[in-house]
Amino acid sequence: MARDINDIQRDIERTRQQLAGTLDELANRTKPQNLVDDAKNQANEKLQDPTVQKVLLGIGAAVVGLIVLSVANGRKKKKNLKELQRILAERA
To answer: What is the DSSP string of 10-49?
Structure first.
């Protein structure tokens, strides 16, 4: 059974409207500000997760520990160097 020309035109118009809506939605989703906002929202959601907070706390503690060790080693080396300079100065 052949379709009526009016039915075909309505189908074409409906398809055009759906396509236009899809294109508008894609254009809206890909706007830079919307992408930034989405990324911020996702990051905030992740930061609210207790597991992520614990991991970040552990990483922060490790970084602080490494900095403290580095400073302590630097002071120790400086102290040893001064001691060595003092010993050499006494020999001269």
So the answer is: HHHHHHHHHHHHHHHHHHHHTSHHHHHHHHHHHHHHHHTS
- How many angstroms separate the CA atoms of 2 and 8, rounded? 10
Query: What's the CA gap between 32 and 40, in Å, rounded?
Result: 12
> Any idea what DSSP says for residue 49?
S
> 56: which residues sit within 8 A by CB, 6+ positions away?
47
Is the pLDDT reported for residue 48 higher than 70?
yes
Mean pLDDT over 56-72 rounds to 97
Residue 45: CA atoms inside 13 Å, Cβ hemisphere, count? 6
Helix (H, G, I), strand (E, B) or coil at 69: helix
Mean pLDDT over all residues of the chain?
93
Measured CA to CA, the distance from residue 40 to residue 74 in angstroms comes to: 39
Q: Is 83 helix (H, G, I), strand (E, B) or coil?
A: helix
